[in-house]
């Protein structure tokens, strides 16, 4: 899968996504992540990419021309108009199901805004999806874009090793992860739950399932509405 990130801060995005798992997938050629500097496409003699808002008000607005031309350069290179996401608090909140859907795309363009926003007319022409990452205000779309790239990438086949993909399972069914323990068997007077040392895999699985359900009920009861539970599990809630 190929990510194309339209941004005024390409270094921030390239640095932030150079992590172990994502970086390894890029090296293996499973992913490519290209940060496109919007400023490289401005026709302004002074490399300006923003201007005052018509109608007045605080702040600056990112102009249509450099964004459109940067987007068009990507479209010309790949030969079709891919889904184009504008990162904005005005979109629906990103979730795991969206990550799984986006992971099916061959290309994805992520448009990062700054200042007071982007000229509406270019959004109308290029944006197919509006996405927020939660109800708080950030200074720009770069961190949200990195969040999306990470969450989508780990759903692309081959990005996670078998070891790493185990931990996708529980959220897939809308339940939180069960608690994990490693050596030593006793730490600060706290013992590892004995069932985990029993070697009885069926019992361990049943215990973990129960812990996942209990933990979800306690910490994220809102998720239980989506959880895939047996009739018995739902009755016992
Ligand atoms: Cl996608 N952008 C900005 N600027 N702030 C946000 C956001 C996005 N999602 C939550 N807050």
From TrEMBL:
UniProt KW keywords: Cytoplasm, Methyltransferase, S-adenosyl-L-methionine, Transferase, tRNA processing
Biological processes, Gene Ontology terms: methylation
tRNA methyltransferase TRMD/TRM10-type domain ranges (all copies): 1-225
Residues binding S-adenosyl-L-methionine, per UniProt: 113, 133-138
Catalysed transformations (reactions): guanosine(37) in tRNA + S-adenosyl-L-methionine = N(1)-methylguanosine(37) in tRNA + S-adenosyl-L-homocysteine + H(+)
Top-rank EC class of the record's enzyme: transferase
Record InterPro entries: Alpha/beta_knot_MTases, tRNA_m1G_MeTrfase_C_sf, tRNA_m1G_MeTrfase_TrmD, tRNA_m1G_MTases_N, tRNA_MeTrfase_TRMD/TRM10
The keyword DNA-binding is annotated on this UniProt entry: no
SUPFAM superfamilies the UniProt entry points to: alpha/beta knot
Compartment(s): Cytoplasm
Function according to Swiss-Prot or TrEMBL: Specifically methylates guanosine-37 in various tRNAs.
Cited PANTHER family: TRNA (GUANINE-N(1)-)-METHYLTRANSFERASE
Family: Belongs to the RNA methyltransferase TrmD family.
Name by which UniProt lists this protein: tRNA (guanine-N(1)-)-methyltransferase
Species, as recorded: Roseburia yibonii
């Amino acid at each position: 899968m190929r990510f194309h990130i339209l941004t005024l801060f390409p270094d921030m995005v390239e640095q932030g996504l150079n992590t172990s798992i994502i970086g390894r997938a890029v090296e293996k050629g499973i992913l490519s992540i290209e940060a496109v500097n919007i400023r490289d496409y401005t026709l302004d003699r002074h490399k300006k990419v923003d201007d005052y808002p018509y109608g007045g008000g605080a702040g600056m607005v990112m102009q249509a021309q450099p964004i459109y031309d940067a987007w068009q350069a990507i479209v010309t290179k790949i030969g079709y108009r891919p889904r184009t996401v504008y990162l904005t608090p005005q979109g629906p909140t990103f979730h795991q199901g969206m990550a799984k859907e986006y992971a099916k795309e061959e290309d994805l363009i992520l448009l990062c805004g700054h200042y007071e926003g982007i000229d509406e007319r270019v959004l109308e022409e290029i944006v197919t999806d509006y996405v927020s990452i939660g109800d708080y205000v950030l200074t720009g779309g770069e961190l949200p874009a990195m969040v999306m790239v990470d969450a989508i990438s780990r759903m692309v086949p081959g990005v996670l090793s078998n070891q790493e993909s185990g931990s996708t399972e529980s959220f897939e069914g809308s339940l939180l992860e069960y608690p994990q323990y490693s050596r030593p068997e006793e730490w600060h007077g706290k013992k590892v739950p004995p069932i985990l040392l029993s070697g009885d895999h069926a019992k361990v699985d049943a215990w973990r399932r129960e812990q996942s359900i209990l933990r979800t009920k306690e910490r994220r009861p809102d998720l239980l509405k989506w959880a895939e539970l047996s009739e018995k599990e739902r009755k016992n809630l």
